Amino acid sequence: MGRVSIGGQAVIEGIMMKNDDKYAIAVRKPDKEIEVKLESYTPWSKKGAIFRMPVVRGVFNFVESLVIGMKTLMYSAEFYDEEEEVKPKKEKNKKNKKAGDIIETVNDKASEPDKDHKKKESSDDALMIGTVAFSLVLAIGLFMLLPAFIASLLDGVIKNHFLLGLVEGVIRLIIFLIYVVLISMMEDIKRTFMYHGAEHKCINCLESGKDLTVENVMASTRFHKRCGTSFLFIVMIVSILVFMCIRTETVWLRLGLRVLLVPVIAGISYEFIRFAGRHDNWIANVLSKPGLWVQKLTTKEPTPDMVEVAIKAVEGVLDWRAYLEEQKSVQNS
Q: Which backbone phi and psi does 35 adopt, to 5 degrees?
């Protein structure tokens, strides 16, 4: 069965699935109902030939995925922010009723709904831009600059710049793995990693040619070669190879180059993930193994109700029955 074109990510108590120029966010709300929201957008790949060039496309795809991912994450969080706000209000109202007070509910938003909606959208956009920028700065500082700075302390001990670059890369990998292990211990992150597993299982179920039922999805593997975790791990490996070839005696110039070369490294890493996702030969499988091992930390076995959410997200962007019929016709022809 062929490679399905969808991809996605886990969000708070839900999953986002993306296909071509649309994406769907399915969230299990506090009342246990599943909310599905469908959004359309214009991918960078459709804005010009330059955005489809090898390596360059990887940079824009990474930024695009980061923005959509942050937007959907914020959307899913709203359901649980509202729940936290409603609880104290309910408790206060109960106390007032017991005291015999008359409770009046006033809808403040009814006065100027359009203006309030625009203000909220503007505020959400500003928050998203700030969050994306902060995330990028934090990631570059933690995974690029910190390892380079630690390795620079060994300049007087290690004279070979190839070896020094290798040591820096090992430090970067260790920091990355420690970070993943630590966040995987957080209870909320554990649930997100379970939804991450449900996302992979859905895609693997489709790619194996099986109907998208809870039973079939649960039986599928939670590991996938095109995972974002594998992409980040490949970024670490590619950075080792790139920085080993760059020699500079000035520490600040060395740190500056680490920042400037991040887009290049991301672009090269994207090409590898793209290759691994499109091929099933022994080379792609062997080179994908380290990323799949790391997925043991970032994906967990989901529950059936999490899989239900994942299926709803898929159905928002893909008619999977028609897809399976089409794949069967291609195989039989």
A: -100, 130
pTM of structure: 0.82
Would you state the structure tokens that stand for residue 76, as one six-digit string?
A: 């899913």
Q: Which string of b and e fits 173-196 if b means at least 16 CB within 10 Å?
A: bebbeeebeeebeeeebebbbbbb
Structure tokens at 276: 């691994």
CA gap 98, 313 in Å, rounded: 43
Local structure of residue 26 (DSSP, 8 states): E
Give the tens place of pLDDT for each residue, 37-48.
999 999 988 898
Query: Cα(65)–Cα(18) distance, rounded to whole angstroms?
Result: 10
CA distances to 200, 278, 295, 326 from 221, rounded to whole Å, are: 7, 18, 11, 23
CA-based max dimension of the chain: 81
Phi-psi label, residue 3: left if phi above 0, alpha if psi -120 to 50, beta otherwise: beta
